[in-house]
């Protein structure tokens, strides 16, 4: 006897966190989750309309921001107190910031960080005034020797010690080049193993780990608890490329030691604001993403 084949279940064959458009009735509000936006994601918009862009980001549903424009005591041209006030007026909190100062060749060879640490003292005070919980160094070149890499580890330990004294955590954000080897040792592994967990955490950018042909989850398990912040990033909008195993990442955040998820969108299929909204929706729609990682 012929029967019509039911195919309802076919719709559920995709991954748990497949991006979909949220449909909310007038009587139902979107699920609230603590999600941070790296403001570099809207860099062009914010340079043209600072207040309007921040307002839009708050209206989307982001709860916190990560700055990327610290310069000589100012954030986006605003004093730390003004920047904090602007973000809070938009309904969000200031959580973290990307900023760094590389060592001069003289400092690298002498291991005398005095000049750079004077810069950091002012930087840390500005971040404290802005209400920051974390400061993250977003970049360093591949070291030429293990000796130079060790010097940077010692430098980061000292920065982290000064941050901790002011109630701030200091971390390092990776790209793909940190998975190159320096004198036979993987740079990223060496950095994790030769920095003090009391002073230095790691903000893993999961996309760049994958681009470096590594597994984020393997690193979570190998260096348990070192990854307080995760940059949740894709080639463009979240879930767009299919190359990042977000489901596995979200299932293993306890091993990572994750306290916050930070969205970053660097390239776009749509306008930056639309791409950021789609990325937020991806996380709000995903049942594996917790409402909070800090509680």
Q: With helices defined by DSSP (H or I, 4 residues minimum), what is the helix count? A: 12
- Work out the radius of gyration: 20 Å
Reported for the largest beta sheet, the result is: 8 strands, parallel, barrel
* Element string (H = helix, E = strand): EHHEEEHEHHEHEEEHEHHEHHEH
Shape: globular
* Amount of beta strand: 15-25%
Give the rounded overall mean pLDDT. 92
The order of strands across the largest sheet is 1-2-5-6-7-10-11-12
State the separation between the terminal residues, measured CA to CA: 57 Å
Helix content: 25-40%
Number of strands: 12
Structural class, by secondary structure, is alpha/beta
Query: Runs with pLDDT <50, length 5+?
Result: 1-15, 19-27
Q: What can you see in these coordinates?
A:
- With 295 residues, the chain is an alpha/beta fold.
- It is 38% helix and 16% strand.
- The chain contains 12 helices and 12 strands.
- It has helices at residues 43-48, 50-60, 80-89, 105-110, 114-129, 146-165, 187-193, 206-211, 216-222, 246-251, 253-256, 272-285; strands spanning 36-38, 64-67, 70-71, 74-75, 93-98, 134-137, 169-173, 181-182, 185-186, 200-205, 229-233, 260-264.
- The strands form 3 sheets. Strands 1-2-5-6-7-10-11-12 form an 8-stranded parallel β-barrel. A two-stranded antiparallel sheet has the order 3-4.
- α5 (114-129) runs parallel beside α6.
- The protein is globular.
- Mean pLDDT is 92; it is low at 1-15 and 19-27.
List the helices and strands and how they pair.
Elements: E1 36-38, H1 43-48, H2 50-60, E2 64-67, E3 70-71, E4 74-75, H3 80-89, E5 93-98, H4 105-110, H5 114-129, E6 134-137, H6 146-165, E7 169-173, E8 181-182, E9 185-186, H7 187-193, E10 200-205, H8 206-211, H9 216-222, E11 229-233, H10 246-251, H11 253-256, E12 260-264, H12 272-285
Parallel strand pairs: 1-2, 1-12, 2-5, 5-6, 6-7, 7-10, 10-11, 11-12
Antiparallel strand pairs: 3-4, 8-9
């Amino acid at each position: 006897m012929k029967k019509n084949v039911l195919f309802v279940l076919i719709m559920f064959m995709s991954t748990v966190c497949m991006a979909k458009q949220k449909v909310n009735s007038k009587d139902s509000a979107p699920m609230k989750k603590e999600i941070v936006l790296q403001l570099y994601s809207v860099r062009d918009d914010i340079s043209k309309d600072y207040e309007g862009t921040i307002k839009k980001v708050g209206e989307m549903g982001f709860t916190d921001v990560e700055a990327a424009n610290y310069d000589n005591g100012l954030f986006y041209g605003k004093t730390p107190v003004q920047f904090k006030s602007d973000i809070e007026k938009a309904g969000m909190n200031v959580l973290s910031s990307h900023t760094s100062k590389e060592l001069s060749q003289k400092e690298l060879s002498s291991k005398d960080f005095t000049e750079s640490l004077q810069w950091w003292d002012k930087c840390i005070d500005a971040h404290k005034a802005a209400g920051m919980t974390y400061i993250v160094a977003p970049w360093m070149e591949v070291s030429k020797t293990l000796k130079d890499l060790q010097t940077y580890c010692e430098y980061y330990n000292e920065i982290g010690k000064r941050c901790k004294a002011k109630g701030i955590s200091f971390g390092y954000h990776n790209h793909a080049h940190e998975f190159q080897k320096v004198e036979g040792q993987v740079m990223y592994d060496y950095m994790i193993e030769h920095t003090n967990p009391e002073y230095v955490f790691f903000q893993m950018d999961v996309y760049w780990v994958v681009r470096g042909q590594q597994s984020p989850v393997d690193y979570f398990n190998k260096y348990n608890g070192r990854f307080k912040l995760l940059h949740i990033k894709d080639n463009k909008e979240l879930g767009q490329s299919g190359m990042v195993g977000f489901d596995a990442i979200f299932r293993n955040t306890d091993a990572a030691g994750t306290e916050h998820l930070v969205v970053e969108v660097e390239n776009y299929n749509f306008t930056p604001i639309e791409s950021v909204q789609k990325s937020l929706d991806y996380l709000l729609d995903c049942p594996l993403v917790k409402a909070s990682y800090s509680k």
